[in-house]
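step 4 of 6: structure.
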Amino acid sequence: MKKRVYLAALLAASSLAACGGGKAQFSVAGTVSNLAYDGLQLTTNGQTLNVPKGSTTFSFPQTISYGDTYNVTIVSQPAHENCVVGGGNDSAGRLATIAVTVSCGIIGHAISGSVTGLTGAGLVLTNGSNGTAPIPATATAYTFGSATVAYGSTYGVTVLTQPAGQTCSVANAIGLMGDADVTNVNVTCVNNP
Amino acid sequence: MTRLTRPLGLALAALALAACGGGSKTLYIGGGISGYTTSGLVLINKDNNDTFAVPAGSQSFAMPKLISNDEHFDIEVQTQPTGATCDLLNNKGTAGAYSVSSVSVVCKPILHTLTGTISGLTGTGLILINGSDKQTITTNGPFAMAKVGETFPYAVLVYQQPSGQTCTVTNGVGTVGTTDISNLLVNCQ
């Protein structure tokens, strides 16, 4: 008889532990910004979560207990974007709520090309109002330095200033940015008559 | 007083003055600058007439004259930079025990309209671009691209020709000055 009582007490204790009695539970959650495309997958504490495009918040399905460590990381990036996690690694309960931030931005790609026949000084290319590329007289190639173009944006490169004594034209000047750098916006210069 | 004690007394008096902070200019006033890509910005501390010409492209500043604790300051824009308007935040106050680095200068480009006229358009599908700005054009008459900041270049090109026609842009490339651009001409044939 005594053995049965012990067993019952043990069962009761284990069922209490199973339903989390005594330890506060925390949901691993947060906010998402600028998520324009599908494909973002996050993970923490053995769980994975797909975050669809347009989401502004996320929350992992299973809660974790007070004192558990969480570490939210990116399993896969969304298409055409790069996301970074802020405040993703901490101990549950150190702060009142878990508030992870996931910040996303559309990836930019460079525009570049070859330069043929340039001997004059002063050539400047421009991609509309989105950036200029000054090209020295001896150049045989160029890149729009820091002014990358976001995936899905248009670009249109033209000569803003012709070099001294020459006229330059731009090939493959217009397009829609894809998922890779554009390397064929080529410039050809000829001497003025 | 002997010859020895007089200078000592003066030195002590000077030391006491410095210690109580009266007139000791040891604190600087400064802060961060955002969006300042051109040149010409001049800041002034109106309380001591201290001016500072901010070097082109700076992302932070400190006024040349140091101030004392308990001294009031009022940083304002004396001269706006080329092509932009700068506003100030946390720019008035009284210095405490520490230097002030919380003045914030926020500059934004002055925008100008980029407009023109379409003629001869009978087809559908004409799209004009200025870099990443994309405008679909459906009718003859006036049209507008997105506004462009002063000192910025622009290059309006045909991204897609209308069905059965070819359009050409005149006056499509230039640099925005201090006025709006309204002379873009797009003729379709």
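step 5 of 6: annotate
 - The radius of gyration of chain A is 29 Å.
 - The longest helix of chain A spans residues 2-18.
step 6 of 6: archive
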